[in-house]
Design goal:
By secondary structure, the chain is mostly helical. Helices cover about 60% and strands about 10% of the residues.
């Protein structure tokens, strides 16, 4: 499962699909997950607070392809914070739709008066709970996690979802988590730092 997909499920680990975070923090975390997927695939790099496309070949995943096209088409905008803000406006719906296409979530429309609301409900509660359970188990293993898992840990911490992963973790788990993010490759470490800063700024603004 891709990084943004797992982040979505950790952030919506609820039988009704409700978010554990404020919408702004959720969107920023998912936007970072989408950028991170492209960094992991070698198509982006991040340095000095900027995003740079290094490989324009289209990814196999449709959503990743869309994000890469946006980055290429708006190349005058390079700041990570700008892209986190922009992608964060639609990332929650985009990733939920990807999970619905994968058969993990079920899209449900509810009509009320003149408005239709859309929600995404889990099809299998065990599948929705699995990413957080998997991360928690990784912290008890002697082997270091993979780079994608390290990024996921970083985004969990940056957005305030740590309790969803470490609710039963002891001191050793907390210590391991504290050393994972500094060990990330530099582009991903910067992405995590920029995400944490963006979430902090959203908190100060009152998270509209």
């Amino acid at each position: 499962m891709l990084t943004a997909d797992e982040f979505y499920l950790i952030a919506h680990n609820d039988s009704r699909g409700r978010a554990k975070l404020h919408a702004s923090a959720t969107g920023l975390g998912l936007a970072a997950g989408l950028l991170g997927e492209l960094v992991l695939s070698g198509q982006l790099t991040i340095t000095g607070g900027n995003v740079m496309v290094v490989d324009r070949r289209p990814p196999a995943d449709a959503l990743a392809h869309t994000v890469l096209d946006q980055l290429v088409g708006e190349s005058q905008h390079q700041a990570v914070r700008t892209w986190l803000s922009f992608l964060g406006q639609s990332a929650t719906t985009s990733v939920a739709e990807r999970l619905a296409r994968a058969g993990v979530l079920r899209r449900q429309e509810t009509r009320r008066l003149l408005r239709t609301s859309v929600s995404y409900l889990p099809i299998d509660l065990n599948a929705v709970a699995w990413p957080a359970t998997r991360l928690r188990a990784l912290l008890d293993q002697p082997e270091p996690p993979t780079v994608p898992d390290g990024l996921l840990f970083g985004l969990v911490c940056a957005t305030g979802l740590t309790r969803e992963v470490l609710w039963s973790g002891g001191d050793q788990a907390h210590h391991r988590l504290s050393v994972l993010i500094p060990a990330l490759p530099l582009p991903l470490k910067e992405l995590v730092a920029q995400t944490e800063a963006a979430v902090g700024a959203a908190v100060l603004r009152g998270m509209p």
